[in-house]
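Run: sequence + adenosine-5'-diphosphate -> complex structure.
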Amino acid sequence: TKFVYAFSEGSKDQKDLLGGKGANLAEMANLGLPVPPGFIISTEACRAYLAEGREPDALAAEVAEHLAALEKTMGKALGQPDDPLLVSVRSGAKFSMPGMMETVLNIGLNDESVHGLAARAGDERFAYDSYRRLLTMFGKTVLGMEGHLFEDEMDARKAQRGSTSDLDLTAEDYRELVTTYQRLIKEHTGAEFPQDPREQLDLAVRAVFDSWNTERAVLYRRQERIPSDLGTAVSVVAMVFGNVGQDSGTGVAFTRDPASGAQGVYGDYLQNAQGEDVVAGIRNTVPLADLERIDKPAYDDLMRIMETLEGHYQDLCDIEFTVERGKLWMLQTRIGKRTAEAAFRIATQLVDQGLIDMDEAVRRVNGAQLAQLMFPRFDSDAERTLLATGMNASPGAAVGKAVFDSTTAVEWAERGHDVILVRRETNPDDLKGMVAAKGILTSRGGKTSHAAVVARGMGRTCVCGADALDVDVKNKRFTSLDGVRVEEGDVISIDGTTGEVFAGEVPVVDSLVVRHFEGDETAEGDELVLAVERVMAHADESRRLGVRANADTPEDAARARRFGAQGIGLCRTEHMFLGDRKALVEHLIIAESEQEQEEALSALLPLQRSDFIGILEAMDGLPVTIRLIDPPLHEFLPDYTDLSVQVAMEDDHDRRDSKHHKLLDAVRRLHEQNPMLGLRGVRLGIVIPGLFKMQARAILEATAERKKAGGDPQPEIMIPLVAAVQELELVKADIVQVAAAVEDETGVDLDFKVGTMIELPRAVMAAGEIAEAAEFFSFGTNDLTQMTWGFSRDDVEASFFGRYLEKGIFGVSPFETLDRDGVGQLVRIAVERGRATRPDLHLGVCGEHGGDPDSIHFFDDAGLDYVSCSPFRVPVARLEAGRATS
Ligand code: ADP
Ligand code: MG
Ligand code: MG
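>> structure
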């Protein structure tokens, strides 16, 4: 294998091999842009080094060969005493890992060549400034010394000069710093700073390889789900100098605003500076626009190049550049990160500029970004006191009183307070508090910490790893870096979208995009809303998958429809048994004769019927899939202990006949060790046939009534938890009988479908037979995931998922994103077998995965007809379904 590549051999499409930085340097060089010459050591060399613990044999010779070529181009040798070539040694992996890995500048300087550099530039101060920078970076990166050792000396020098600016340091200061730094290096490593330029180069390359596996790099990759075995490439680039006086400088720029997407001149510039100075905040930078005044020709060059880059990459680029005595040099470019808002704006702007088409625009945004735009936000115009910025672990804007333990969180929440649970880190014992809280804030842990994983699972706002906060759980308070103290009960605001933590209550505003979806006319005409609308319209045109909503009430159904739902994929009926109706369900359960049972059922019938009328009306003309009752009946009964107490307090003689007594009996009778696998779903329908028949009657009477009123109801009756076709056949026969009766009674012809959920592995295997009785399948991927993995979702997410994620057993919870290799295979099998029996079998999914971007792409690929998700996710699903085909 070849390990080293010339810029002319590379291109932007070779990020795997050359790293993002190297690939784009090659691309720019080949575009004819002013890039200092150099070469790239591949990620393959890094992988070989990491595997073997030493550089591959061929590497040294290849580096020598490319170095010789570079020296020839530059007309000088690395570290040449009278006129040294200096190089930078730069890390750069396939995925950008900002600030994670290392770069060393000014390689090639030593006690001799520093004189040569000074003489050539006619500037001794510049030469020693460059040398002390090399010693600092080499000391930190290659020799593993603490940065503050060097910074403290620098600060002491400035203090001696009575200044805080490096500009006031003289050549003399820098020369003395160089001496001091060399002494520090000797003290701390026992060896002299290497004077041999080639040795410097080799050690720096090795240090960059090693930086792939620093703790923070490992952690960052885990958080960002970047594979750990990619390795980094190393770019070796001839130095250009922004620190040779006021006519030089260095800067960063974006081709447009990464926050809003607006076109214009965005960036920062710093005169007489090198490398990281711009972002390190050593001095105040000036806005990029000022470069026009400082150095018009360089500015014009830069503007021209930025236009070239945008045209070439057809996207927002971010850029690093340096001006050396009036000459502009490009040091880096890449497709720039951007906010969700900017992503939509930029995508449509690029279409208008003719750079990309609408298909590409749809690919350039994603559902996660759209979801971000739909969360309520803190009003950025309001006055806010920022306490810290942590990780944006789970989006949303939450305001509440700070509490520091789970028990208090639960108590205060029960008393009606909004609370934010603040912990150093959370563990499974905190779960109750997390459920009770509006938001969760931790000072430790990353995006896969317990707090983050659980919060995302529950849709709770969460900021984690805000390590600037000193959380003192024992004394129930935390302190910010600036010394602001927040005690238990003080109100704070946390922004899970940005990771910001604010003191006090920050006002919340509804998202403009949601207001638009809701039909609020004041949101029309806004540029962002227009951009979102255009992208959504194209996604709708392109997608093959239908998108329905999970909705149980007419209000939810109406909202889902406004959000673009094409029907209801899951209408749960169990909530229709709660509230005031609980008493009726209790009657049903404790009924002692068939007659009592029937009385209880007929009391429920009109209530259910009116529920269905409302929903069918809200979704008139669109399919409404109604699932018959699924949960075990004891979920509708009072708590065992409460009941026992009540029974104990009643007089002896009326005890036996009391309702409480009968209920207590029922609770005992219905108790199950493992209700998830107990008497629920279709099993209830078979044990208490009257229950399903009543529900079917309510649905069909509602349908008849809607038809009479001139509507177009399209009910689909769905049977849960079917494992065998016989179960479905039994229930279906009852439904058909009820339908015939209702048709007779009302004189209305009824159109409806009967289908089943596929949520048990057995149902998957028997899908061919089940399809003989089912007109549609709806994959209940929540249960299917539970049943396939043998995980109880209510128990495992808090107890061991954190560990599983940490160990990489899965990269993301299988309840969040469909497990393609296991559960996904079952879906494919059921699709194939079901369609083999009934080619027009209609297929959908109604588990939570129906709103998850990655899962939606899978369902599209598996050939389902629609996904169904919560009303709020409907736009996200529409967009992702469009992206799946664009
Ligand atoms: P990072 O990945 O952290 O941005 P870089 O490799 O881009 O690290 O380098 C750090 C800084 O040094 C950047 O500001 C970059 O522009 C600057 N730099 C890198 N190589 C050179 C060079 N050959 N000449 C001048 N400046 C350089
Ligand atoms: Mg850089
Ligand atoms: Mg289920």
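>> summary
The radius of gyration is 33 Å. The CA atoms of residues 219 and 446 lie 8 Å apart.
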